[in-house]
Design goal:
- By secondary structure, this protein is of the alpha/beta class.
- About 40% of the residues lie in helices and about 15% in strands.
- It contains 21 helices and 20 strands.
- Strands 3-2-4-5-7-6 form a six-stranded parallel beta sheet. A six-stranded parallel beta sheet has the order 11-10-9-12-13-14, with helices on both faces. A six-stranded parallel beta sheet has the order 16-15-17-18-20-19, sandwiched between helices.
- The longest helix is centred in the middle third of the chain and has 16 residues, at about 345-360.
- The structure holds thiamine diphosphate (TPP) and magnesium ion.
Length: about 550
């Protein structure tokens, strides 16, 4: 119960800061270590989602950061709660998503005795976060929480961990709220823009790559207008496909794992590469083989909101420290050359992309995941949100689904399994009016599948497509490549995922042939419940273009001749 003497508990001050900063959703697993903060939510209009595991809560918060560009918030208890949250923190780090994790902490007078579940959060999360701190004085909550929001969202966004000693949260203080935070825009300078103009005018074969965070619908639209005016080909980097309309005439494709070889060749042959927002990390750079490190042969322009990323791996010819939101607006001021020499090449690039993604490949087995994905392409509205985690199954989703709009993709660029289900729960919680479809492998799904219970609890009719090949397929593929026929620890004995869904109170159906998918999907939709469609796929279908046996035989032949 709130007092009326002008004082508030630390917990109340904390929750009031979240209100002040415009937080609408919080994800948590409760703990006795932050009861006073939990209690303060009772009187405030913030939606709380209680989860089944802190990894789910943290991934949901990261997904909110990814979708909205504003810090996603999660609350977890000390020790095991905090360490359970670490996947989400790591994802926020690598995916540059703004997020704040509030963690309970032992009372101040017990610190440094290794009290119950005590951890040194600065030491544990220091290298994974942008900032890890503990609030010792309730009167400083407004200051430090304001800093947490700014730190998480500014420059290259990322995670912040704030530890809350239990007794601090019950202290009473008289202190004012901080004003709402605003992420700081980083604008390109006039000389940056004119130098870019000159480079574009001098180019013969330019290409633009989009990635990273700090985008918006308006920024994505501005880049599309720029692309149109310059007739320049644009590719999106690993799991950032939603930044550009896949059917835009300038779209050259998705630069992810196993991309269109023609796209790779085009980037290698380009004389100007303009990377906006991303880091071009190990996956999109094809293990750092696409551009030379540190000096790309192509003229390389790197636009990034974090100054520390510029020159970190690649030495740019032109480094522009700007957020994509601001940079995209500045693109409106650029003038295309009178004659665009690369126009025809762009048309070819888009045709190559369409050809690569149009028709599902033929694969062994009765369920063709490519056909399932292309079926959904025509079924789902353009604003449907597609979620996935990590595993070979995702290769079909990234290749054959065509993302048309900003904010329709939730996927871990850091390849963390278990991402899809919690991300889907968060997306549906934020956007109940939009359809949310999650793809998960059999391995991926059971890492965080218990959050299906959260979907049931909050009546969130997400549709989860579990692609069951009875194995950690990606690792089996690598195993057959490196150690053919020596299968260790990659086979999985799975439950009946459709029955799992029903046991939780959701809708479940098993799909054994491609033809069974459409009616199962329609029934899932019609049920109005969270749903799992259990796809029994053939383990031989290891990628859209390779079979397990094919990979094994190829590597056996290699071993035999070496
Ligand atoms: C949290 C986590 N643990 C382990 C890995 C290593 N890993 C990458 S893919 C993969 C197997 C994925 O299996 P599944 O979800 O069934 O998809 P499949 O490859 O079979 O399609 C593993 C274990 C990872 N990326 N993330
Ligand atoms: Mg699998």
């Amino acid at each position: 119960m709130r007092a009326n003497d002008g004082t508030r508990t630390g917990g109340e001050v904390l929750v009031d800061q979240l209100v002040a900063h415009g937080v609408g959703h919080v994800f948590c697993v409760p703990g006795e270590s932050y009861l006073a903060a939990l209690d303060a939510f009772h009187d405030r209009n913030i939606a709380i989602t209680v989860c089944r595991h802190e990894s789910g809560a943290a991934i949901m918060a990261e997904a909110v950061g990814k979708l909205t560009g504003r810090p996603g918030i999660c609350f977890v208890t000390r020790g095991p709660g905090a360490t359970n949250a670490s996947p989400g923190i790591h994802i926020a780090r690598q995916d540059s998503s703004p997020m704040i994790v509030f963690v309970g902490q032992v009372a101040r007078e017990m610190r440094d005795r290794e009290a119950f579940q005590e951890l040194d959060y600065g030491a544990v999360f220091g290298t994974m976060t942008k900032w890890a701190a503990e609030i010792d004085d309730a009167a400083r909550i407004p200051e430090l929480v304001s800093r947490a929001f700014h730190t998480a969202a500014n420059g290259r966004p990322g995670p912040v961990v704030i530890a809350l000693p239990e007794d601090m949260l019950t202290d009473r203080v008289a202190v004012g709220d901080a004003p709402a935070f605003e992420a700081i825009e980083t604008w390109p300078g006039l000389t940056d823009v004119s130098r870019l103009q000159k480079l574009l005018w001098a180019a013969e074969r330019p290409i633009v790559l989009l990635g990273g965070s700090r985008w918006s619908e308006a920024a994505s639209a501005a880049v599309m207008r720029f692309a149109e005016r310059f007739a320049v080909p644009v590719a999106t980097t690993f799991r950032r496909g939603h930044l550009f309309d896949a059917l835009h005439p300038c779209y050259a494709g998705d630069l992810g794992i196993g991309p269109n070889p023609k796209l790779l060749a085009r980037i290698k042959a380009a004389d100007l590469v303009v990377l906006i927002g991303g880091r071009l990390g190990e996956m999109p750079s094809q293990s750092y083989t696409l551009l030379d490190v540190p000096s790309p042969r192509q003229t390389f322009v790197h636009v990034h909101p974090g100054a520390e990323e510029l020159g970190k791996v690649y030495r740019p010819h032109l480094a522009i420290n700007a957020a994509p939101t601001a940079f995209a607006a500045a693109l409106e001021g650029l003038q295309p050359p009178a004659e665009i020499r690369w126009r025809d090449g762009t048309a070819v690039a888009h045709a190559d992309h369409l050809a690569w993604t149009e028709q599902p490949t033929t694969v062994p087995g009765a369920v063709n995941l490519g056909e399932v994905v292309t079926f959904l392409r025509h079924q789902l509205a353009a604003d449907a949100i597609i979620c996935n985690g990590a595993g070979n199954y995702a290769g079909w989703v990234h290749r054959f689904h065509r993302l048309r709009r900003f904010g329709t993709q939730l996927a871990p660029t850091c390849g963390s399994m278990g991402y899809g289900v919690p991300a889907a729960v968060a997306a549906k919680r934020l956007h109940p009016e939009r359809e949310v479809v999650c793809f998960a492998g059999d391995g991926c799904f059971l890492m965080t599948g218990q959050e299906f219970a959260t979907a049931v609890q909050y009546e969130l009719p997400i549709i989860v497509i579990v692609v069951d090949n009875g194995m950690y397929g990606t690792i089996r593929m690598h195993q057959e490549r490196e150690y053919p026929e020596r299968v260790v620890a990659t086979a999985l004995t799975n439950p009946d995922f459709a029955a799992y869904a029903r046991a939780f109170g959701g809708f479940g159906a098993t799909v054994r042939t491609t033809a069974e998918f459409a009616p199962a999907f329609a029934a899932a939709r019609a049920s109005g419940k969270p749903a799992i469609l259990h796809l029994a796929v053939d383990p031989e279908a290891i990628t859209p273009t390779a079979t397990l046996t094919g990979i094994r035989e190829k590597s056996l032949a290699r071993v035999g001749t070496s």
